[in-house]
Design a protein that fits this description.
The protein contains five helices and eleven strands, in the order E-E-E-H-E-H-H-E-H-E-E-E-E-E-H-E. The chain starts with a strand and ends with a strand. The protein has helices at residues 33-42, 60-63, 66-72, 81-89, 149-155; strands at residues 3-10, 13-20, 23-27, 50-54, 77-79, 99-101, 107-109, 112-119, 125-131, 137-141, 160-163. By secondary structure, the chain is α/β, with parallel strands linked by helices. The chain is globular and about 40 Å long. It has a six-stranded mixed beta sheet.
């Protein structure tokens, strides 16, 4: 059975854990690495079970703890091409961690099928439609300003939708 665990959601920081028997992924790391690991510990989520971090966009309330967390727990990082370029050019992601840009097609990340979709924000931003190993579909959209046709399509038919605006 898959788990959906909102860890933090506010202008002070955002992070969500999605996991199952085959491991999990984090969506954003917008709080300090210490706060993030404490939240994972409270939920008894082993850091070595996390397969990747999906970044929605470059604002600090979504990436604040990314650098320090990745230094302790090197993981692949995924995001839109614009976000990946910003993370790389500003040295946010350590060189030991691979960076991948997600386009519009579904990619296998750990045990999940992940598809990025564009959302409206003041910087390039994406949400994620995620297919879990137990056949569920969830979509996550953060800092959502407008329900565009692309967002509507990504939210349609989901078992779980998480909107943060």
């Amino acid at each position: 059975m898959s788990r959906f665990c909102p860890l933090f959601s506010s202008s002070s920081g955002n992070s969500i854990y999605i996991g199952g028997s085959g491991g999990g992924v984090l969506v954003d790391a917008g709080v300090s690495a210490r706060q993030l690991t404490q939240a994972l510990d409270r939920l008894r989520i082993e850091r070595n079970s996390i397969r990747a971090i999906l970044v929605t966009h470059e604002h600090s309330d979504h990436v604040k703890g990314l650098t320090t967390f990745l230094k302790k727990y090197p993981l692949p990082v995924y995001g839109s091409a614009d976000t990946v370029d910003m993370l790389e050019s500003n040295g946010v992601v350590p060189a030991s961690c691979p960076l991948y840009s997600l386009g519009g097609r579904e990619e296998d990340i750990g045990a999940f099928g992940v598809q990025a979709f564009p959302t409206s924000h003041d910087v390039p931003c994406v949400g994620y439609r995620i297919h879990t190993p137990d056949g569920k579909t969830m979509s996550i959209a953060t800092d959502l300003g407008t329900l565009t046709p692309a967002v509507h399509e990504a939210l349609s038919g989901c078992d779980l939708v998480a909107l943060e605006s």
